[in-house]
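Section: Multi-chain targets

For targets with more than one molecule, the full set of components is provided together so that the structure can be written out for the assembly as a whole rather than chain by chain. Components appear in the order listed by the source. The example entry contains four components.
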Amino acid sequence: MAFRVLTRTATGSQQQQQLKVLSDLLIRSFSSGPKNVGFIGLGNMGGPMASNLMAKGHKLHVFDISKDAKDSLKAKGAATYDNVAELAKASDFVVSMLPNNDIVADTYDTIINGGGVKSQTIFIDSSTIDPNVAKAVQKKVKAAGATFVDAPVSGGVPGAKNATLTFMVGGTADEYQAVKELLEGMGKKITHCGGYGMGQAAKVCNNMMLGISMCGLAECMNLAIRLGLDAKVFADIVNASTGRSWASEVNNPVPGIIPTAPAASDYAGGFATGLITKDLGIASAVATSSNSPIPLGALTHQIYRTLMAKGLANKDFSVVYDFLKNTEGK
Amino acid sequence: MAFRVLTRTATGSQQQQQLKVLSDLLIRSFSSGPKNVGFIGLGNMGGPMASNLMAKGHKLHVFDISKDAKDSLKAKGAATYDNVAELAKASDFVVSMLPNNDIVADTYDTIINGGGVKSQTIFIDSSTIDPNVAKAVQKKVKAAGATFVDAPVSGGVPGAKNATLTFMVGGTADEYQAVKELLEGMGKKITHCGGYGMGQAAKVCNNMMLGISMCGLAECMNLAIRLGLDAKVFADIVNASTGRSWASEVNNPVPGIIPTAPAASDYAGGFATGLITKDLGIASAVATSSNSPIPLGALTHQIYRTLMAKGLANKDFSVVYDFLKNTEGK
Amino acid sequence: MAFRVLTRTATGSQQQQQLKVLSDLLIRSFSSGPKNVGFIGLGNMGGPMASNLMAKGHKLHVFDISKDAKDSLKAKGAATYDNVAELAKASDFVVSMLPNNDIVADTYDTIINGGGVKSQTIFIDSSTIDPNVAKAVQKKVKAAGATFVDAPVSGGVPGAKNATLTFMVGGTADEYQAVKELLEGMGKKITHCGGYGMGQAAKVCNNMMLGISMCGLAECMNLAIRLGLDAKVFADIVNASTGRSWASEVNNPVPGIIPTAPAASDYAGGFATGLITKDLGIASAVATSSNSPIPLGALTHQIYRTLMAKGLANKDFSVVYDFLKNTEGK
Amino acid sequence: MAFRVLTRTATGSQQQQQLKVLSDLLIRSFSSGPKNVGFIGLGNMGGPMASNLMAKGHKLHVFDISKDAKDSLKAKGAATYDNVAELAKASDFVVSMLPNNDIVADTYDTIINGGGVKSQTIFIDSSTIDPNVAKAVQKKVKAAGATFVDAPVSGGVPGAKNATLTFMVGGTADEYQAVKELLEGMGKKITHCGGYGMGQAAKVCNNMMLGISMCGLAECMNLAIRLGLDAKVFADIVNASTGRSWASEVNNPVPGIIPTAPAASDYAGGFATGLITKDLGIASAVATSSNSPIPLGALTHQIYRTLMAKGLANKDFSVVYDFLKNTEGK
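Its structure, encoded as tokens over all components, is:
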């Protein structure tokens, strides 16, 4: 790990301060002994992620609004907190895994206002939120003297349980190096996406593409079947042709094509319609704020929103095929 | 090659007739000597395809409305015709490669009405047309006593030149076997998609997916870049994630990501916007006639139609990125 | 009524022929006595239209594939036919009211091939079909020596019953004058839209706008209600503002806003989803053939197609509100 | 004006407080003498609105970030301020006319934190913002002891200049009565839309419908013209038919149909593409937060966003016709 050169125009005392921050990062990064890790948000994702960190030998300091969720980690040896600022004071790293923009922003305000920020602490937000919110929180944490990176994940609940998540990290190259080892305790692929907010940006753009691919594939499979093609034959043709995608290869939405896909079990499990809809909502928001045209992304968002309105929020997002196909005879 | 059992309810003389047709197919299929092959339509695709067949030793009988196109093949040894019925009379196989529904339908009417159909001739239409038109032509050719299969291609002009096309064949299993060897003289992958029209159906559904993927990718790349992501970094993330597709891996629409992609040379070459628009038009037509909802397919069609209106018909279809990206400052 | 000047370059005998045709038109147009009127297609629309013509004193000659439909008119005094060519021979005017492109084309082929075309007969097709098909039929009828105009209607079954239909006529100014009086027996507004096919073009473009307005209004009403607005208050605001449309003023899709609208009676009656979907299909086809971008029209088409797939073909097209609104709690 | 009955369960002192608030409202509403009116935001809209209030005899207290804008009002007799809290202290009513959510929220925070809120002051925000932001600001102002209503406008710069704006007011019935007279000094139609935020909700939903109507009309006019219809003839047909809308009657996007429409002067003036895009952005945001499907609204948003990307932000939003029509030959 090579640190970037110090800012040339810094004054002597600024340089000393910079050196201190860098050496702190170095020490935490290189020392492979157990750390004090705060974990905020112990839901379907956060719970198993925190457990995996404990399995690596780290000391966990945990918070959730649900007492049951905290007790579940306490039983494995974690310290529990009623106050996120106190939790932060006790931690070298703090990982947050929270449901939305507002809760992330409020949580960090509470930590900062409660005096929970220490200069050597690295905050890692693994929630999926608006990149602009991530940037704003980073600024506040930095102003309070510590480090903050965004590191949203893909891989879902199975990835959280099996420590096979992908982390998309937004921060400096040094900060990326400083969090990599810790994140490897919860995932198998840690990607550096760019500066602050770029982890969130990468996730939201990738997932917009995923939603478009799945809706498009659902339309194509339905049309192919209605034109008389055998579903399996056509799926194989697509996978050997220019129409192929992750969706077509791994999560074909037609029941019976891929035995392990959610379509085979009435669209249970997988990546919930509610979650892709949330991600597409973030995509819409950042497309609006950056004035970027996303015609297919916006339409896909509306299609998934219609599925939500029909009560399909908890089904795998491949259920869009079931929604589009005719329930009436030809 | 195992032939299907004869129709059980056939009378004796019907069975004899069936046997004769099958044995004709067998003879033509197994005899690997040169054939008399008619070729109708010698454009950017048909010209090189016909040349490849000549290179395999076949005797070519060719027709085109352009005298220059015919003369070009004549110089290589082909016999030229002014009349497609006469051409068909001289041929064991006839391959047609024509621009649209109406021209295909008219050409086969002319052949049939001109007495060009012999019972042992196999007609192979490699044009990209509406599956319903292909089915209708098949019925007429069959009624006139011969065999007709649809076999549209993918791979574009380079595939035609290098004999690396993919053929998507619609017909019976026996008919597929009967045309396979000949088509291998022009392509490297010959797929059996199902009954009559299913070659066309497979092509149009695959290409609808391709158009959706490309438009979606263009939106995602543009959004990612405007959010501050490095284009190359984000392209790599997508290709390692759930957003990946043929488009993202082979034909990324942002200049500079893939050196061999059309985006690198001002969207020259590749798969023309005019052609994907045509294919999406066929998709729209068959979706209407089969009452199949194709929200993203229809929107993609409109986007490409708008590009056509802006004079981009001859650019590679990845030019949609250039169309969507802001020409104004942020 | 002022006739256009005769073609200057016509020869003497051509001029005589032209004069004869014009005087025929004049005679039929000005003579207000009863005519022999053929009527082909006696369904929900055609049946009452034919009855209204009888009520005006015309002698009706009718055909339908349903014997019951014919018998119903026979009971009122119409002559019935098994053969449309024979029907045409007996008629001064022939009105056709048929379900789709193919049936219209086949019917006129049968009339022409059966020798049913007399030079003084005026054929009026009131079916809703592709403008290009209308043009093609006009050419054939003209080649056979008679006159053909397209005159699709709006106003639905109530308009057919009450003789309050709007007719959109495509033909020359003289032909428009020649058919106006007869059509006034079935409608109250007879519009001249332009040359051959332009009646169909006007209908399909107007109805595409209607579909877009209704879908858009359904979205807006649903959004307004979910944001907390009172539906009636918001409907009044829209009607007094820039968002107003025929749909908002006459056929608001939210139950309870307009007592006479189909929404008030579970979307029964009105303009069926199946019919607007058919019209949007024609719009898509002509937009494809003329390479005209119709992003909202195409999306509206797909939305209505999805409603069809959900079994809503017979409900008024305002049922799209019911489809979009959440069935789940907020 | 009839006030609502007092809250029945209120204690004696609460009732006294309520009575005082109501009587304050009454006094301000009924006294028709000149008021002290604060005005924040003196741009293209706010400037003329403030001038109109001065013309009615009110004493104006004005703020803008532009000194020129303030000086322009000062020359007419207004008092100018560098501090919005001081401005508010001097005012009976405060009208704000600001560009976006964040500036509105910041401005009211500054007023509240600066001690500018007096119990008898009525704040009227005429900016176009997210209804949820309006609700949040109302809560803060109420908590600080004063009254806040949202009252966005339609009518554009001409309406602002000629005092013919429409105001859409969100607040209680009494509050609506209390602001009505003042607003009549700037507009000719003052609508009560419902509780807090409902003025904004009504505006955004109406304008979403307006955007959809205009895009749809542009498609239909373009398609009609390409099919061969005369633009003026078709426009008249639509206006007499079910496709009619405010857009078709008042702002037809085809040059030459309506002499007073922006289309007649190269899309100058009118309602800017940048503004409808902003409104559609708010619609998208509230549709996301309320999980309401808006397929056509979202697509219209993307189309206008594409126009923005092409540098058309300052053209009237009917320029979408010019964007869609073919620049290439048919």
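The first helix of chain D runs from residue 12 to 30.
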